[in-house]
Amino acid sequence: MAHHWKRKLIYLYAKIVRDDGSPSYIARGWAIGMFIGCVIPMSAQLVISIPLSFVLRGSKIGAALGTFITNPVTVLFIYPAQCWVGNKIIGGDLTWEATEKAARGIVKLDFSGFLHLGGDLIASFFIGGFLLAAVCTPITYFGVYHLVVRYRRIKAALKAKRMAQKAEKTKAE
Q1: Which helix (H) or strand (E) holds 123?
Q2: Number of structural domains the chain divides into
Q3: For residue 3, is it within any domain?
């Protein structure tokens, strides 16, 4: 199981650092995806994140993959937590159990069904989502930015080293 996750993380890392564009372009796309993944219900995330990445000039691949913070596995934890936090912020009285049950309904519904859940739950979802996004989006931007810069710096150093070795070898002959 650990090997499976390690492979997935290596694949994700490769997707991040090998994307074309400047580090800020790549990081902006991932931050857009993270923001939309935290705030918008799953069924509408890609429809919003990809056009938004065109407008904000971010990586389209990053915007799409960044939304995957919310997927059928993680939403079982993220949606209840964000609804509960949002409910507490607006002064609601939903218990954790009630919030968890209602949030599971969000997972099962499409976007139009989401609108029938009730004003308090919808408000809780979005307020909690904005709070989660306010925390996760800057972390994503700066984390991805530094991953890309570091990868490119290491890659350039290795290339320079190979070229120097090749020049030495040619000089010796």
Answers
A1: helix 119-172
A2: 1
A3: no
